[in-house]
Amino acid sequence: MVQLKAVKSTFKTVQRNKRARTILLTGLTIFCLVSVYRSVYGIANSNNSFVERVLRNTKTPVTDAAQFASINIFKQDTGKQDRLADDATLREQLHFQFPYSRTDPIPKLIWQTWKYPRDDEEFSSTFYKFTEKWVEKNPDHIYSLIPDSVAHDLVNHLYQTVPQVLRAYELLPKPILKADFFRYLILFARGGIYSDVDTVSLKPASTWVSSNTTLYDQPNEAGLVVGIEADPDRPDWDKYYAKRVQFCQWTIQAKPGHPMLGELIARITEITLQKEKDGTLKRVVGKDAGDDIMNWTGPGIFTDEVFKYMNGVMKYDPNVKVINPTPKNEYNKGLNIARDGVDWHFFTLMEEPVVFDDVLVLPITGFSPGVGHMGSKSPEHKDAYVRHMFEGSWKPEDERMNGDESMKKSKKSYRKPRKSPVQKD
């Protein structure tokens, strides 16, 4: 009771005394500002600590032989380059910062991203179970899930010497565009496996064919591992997919500094900066927003750049190692890739891994089993490594579904493809 009287007395005094009111309000303002500062500073410190821990745990040693002497991404001989020219191009900056070594192994790192950390109460229980599979199946790998609150800081740390890339990342107007770009950026800088948060690890990465010492009785030099997402052998394929044969980018495995990823990053950067210059960053290009995303940062441009890299390698060295066990069919019969170039004809209807120099292409079952068509086998198949659950994790809540729309529609109206007779050589 005495304390209550004292408070009331103080309050009355403050009301009568203008100076006291001013002092009290000033004190409250300072208290609020300090509280906000401490909160923001605490979050920033937490993010910085997380980023520093990720950078420390995933740093890949680079040998002198990995330093590029030339920006020609198809040049195989390497030498040390001590400094970068002041007028270095975007591509030169990228390859200087993250050099590529064909002889180093693929780092045992697993990367995923999501809006929240795994220990956040907002983190989906379904996604948590998916991520647990990655951790459980791959105890020999360092697992990192990068929340949105940290992704920007991590990119800033890794690419601070390549300001155009940072600018492009900041400009991207949609979360899915940033998520796409991030996967390429983190793999180019650190290597390992990137896989969407709505994927499930079916087999340990150490048992994937990309981990074999040899492939088809020859040394395994895979520096980039991609899987077929779609191989729609049907006339209306373009209603559902960006490409006739489309490589998936929900799961990618790579060595750091792989030239294809460097070129992909450069192209996305150039496209984004040009859109800023033209004032078209938020303008939809193509049939719809989904089509725009696929060809800006998604599987459309990813597929284009894989083919572009292969054709560049072939042009640089016509005798490059190419192993494709796919039987002759109506699409690849008589195909001469040195003359005709590398495109979907070379990969359609494939059922075994294809080696193209340092790129290993997995059949559709590798990263897309269980879709029920296009030759995809069950998730229990020996060659099924990752299953995409098609939760539409990048979409707004009201646009998500228990399955990808293009997969649903195309499966519903899918006609069994014609069987092509095996041709003798």
Question: Could you give a short description of this structure?
Answer:
With 425 residues, the chain is an alpha/beta fold.
Structural class of the helix and strand makeup? alpha/beta
- E-strand count: 12
Main sheet attributes: strand count, strand direction, barrel closure: 8 strands, mixed
Strand order of the largest sheet: 2-1-3-8-7-11-10-9
User: Total helix count?
Assistant: 13
Task: Report how far apart the termini are.
Answer: 102 Å
Shape-level CATH architecture of the largest domain: Alpha-Beta Complex
How helical, in percent, are the residues?
40-55%
Rg measurement, Å: 26 Å
Mean pLDDT score: 83
Order of helices and strands: HHHEHEHHHEEEEEEHHHEHEEHEH
CATH class of the largest domain: Alpha Beta
Low-pLDDT regions: 62-71, 76-80, 396-425
Reported by name, the CATH topology of the largest domain is Spore Coat Polysaccharide Biosynthesis Protein SpsA, Chain A
Task: Please give the domain count.
Answer: 2
- Portion in strands: 5-15%
What shape does the CA trace take? globular
InterPro entries: GlycoTrfase_DXD_sugar-bd_CS, Nucleotide-diphossugar_trans, Och1-like
Biased composition (Basic and acidic residues): 395-408
Biased composition (Basic residues): 409-425
GO molecular function: alpha-1,6-mannosyltransferase activity
